[in-house]
Amino acid sequence: MNFEHVFDQLELTTDPFAVCELRGECDLGLGQDANATLHYILAGEGAILIRGEPAIEVSPGSLVLIPALQSHALRSFGRPGEPVPKCDPAELKLRHVLEVSRDGGDDNQVIALCARVRVGLRGAEDVIDLIRSPIVERIDPDNPLRPVLNMILQELSRPTTGSRAMIRSLLTQCMIELLRRRVVHDDEGLRWMAALRDPSVWEALRALLDAPGDAHTVESLAARVGMSRSTFAQRFAAAYGSGPIELLRDLRLHRAARLLRDSDLPVKTIAHSVGFSSRTAFSRLFEQRTGQSPIQYRQQQISQR
After folding, report:
1. Mutual angle of helices 244-262 and 199-210, in 10-degree steps
2. Of 9, 40, 175, 247, which is least surrounded by CB within 10 A?
3. Is the dihedral of CA 19, 39, 172, 253 positive or negative?
4. PROSITE patterns from the entry (predicted)?
5. 283: number of Cβ within 10 Å
6. What pTM was computed for the model?
7. Given pLDDT bands bounded at 50, 70 and 90, which one contains residue 58?
8. What pLDDT band is residue 106 in, cutting at 50, 70 and 90?
9. How many whole angstroms separate alpha carbon 86 and alpha carbon 296?
């Protein structure tokens, strides 16, 4: 399938928020963000650890996109690597998250630039929430985008006027490279792009993305696109890889997590606004998914600002 028209319509933005630096052999817990998070490894060798998933080994040029609300950590193997310039994230209003082992040194560090990612498509927002598993790509030394790594390091180490805007632009290029490479390899995490082949499935996806708090059912979505319940359920699962109600649950949790992070609305109000019938039902599902109660999650997000 030719995805050129899809890329033409993507509205992709990246928002860098932190530089993570690990010195020596150690782990750094990164928690779980309400948005999908892109990690670009600028220096060192290590791994990204995700609960319930195999470790993802990383090295300079590795791009790893973590879906929303997936708890993960960054590990440094503590191996000596190429020296890199000292970063100055504070000048760019980026958090500097530092973890140092007892034997940590500047010559065996892992440095990762972390950014939140948003993707819009055909007027629908938060399309990135359709990604359900990590997406990994590596920009090899012979890739034309490899110099981007050095350009980002230069902007981080010698920030000047426009450096933050430049980093956003460079990360957006990297994100497009990641998506187009993984589409070619039919990456499971990009099944939603294949769903665009079926206009009826996309219409249903759009309804879920636009208003996850509405009282959607398989029957109501099927009626919306003019299909029987069974036909719609089969076509949706074939195109997207899961049922619409399973997706709806995830979208509601993602939306709720953002409201917990970005607003001071009561938990009960958030629960009702995203489509849950009660605070109790919402809190139970949220804790099952994240390992934290909504209050604990909000407090953690506040502490990280």
Report:
1. 30
2. 9
3. negative
4. HTH_ARAC_FAMILY_1, HTH_ARAC_FAMILY_2
5. 17
6. 0.88
7. very high
8. low
9. 35
Q: How does pLDDT run across 164-194, given as a tens digit for each residue? A: 999 999 999 999 988 888 888 878 778 777 7
Q: What domains sit in the chain, N to C, each tagged with a CATH number?
A: 4-190 (2.60.120.10), 198-303 (1.10.10.60)
- In angstroms, rounded to a whole number, what is the distance separating the alpha carbons of residues 270 and 194? 32
Cβ neighbours, 10 Å, residue 100: 15
Structure confidence at residue 1 as a pLDDT band (50, 70, 90): low
Contacts made by residues 118-124, CB under 8 angstroms, sequence distance 24+: 118/12, 118/13, 118/14, 118/15, 118/35, 119/10, 119/11, 119/12, 119/13, 120/10, 120/11, 120/12, 121/6, 121/9, 121/10, 121/11, 122/9, 122/202, 122/206, 123/206, 124/205, 124/206, 124/209, 124/210
Coil, strand or helix at 99: strand
Output DSSP code: residue 55.
Answer: -
Sequence-distant (6+) residues with CB within 8 A of 278 are 271
What average pLDDT score do residues 131-147 get?
87
Q: What is the residue-wise DSSP string for 157-217? A: HS--TTHHHHHHHHHHHHHHHHHHHHHHTT-GGGHHHHGGGSHHHHHHHHHHHH-TTS---
Q: At residue 187, what are phi and psi to the nearest 5 degrees?
A: -60, 135
Give the type of residue at 97.
V
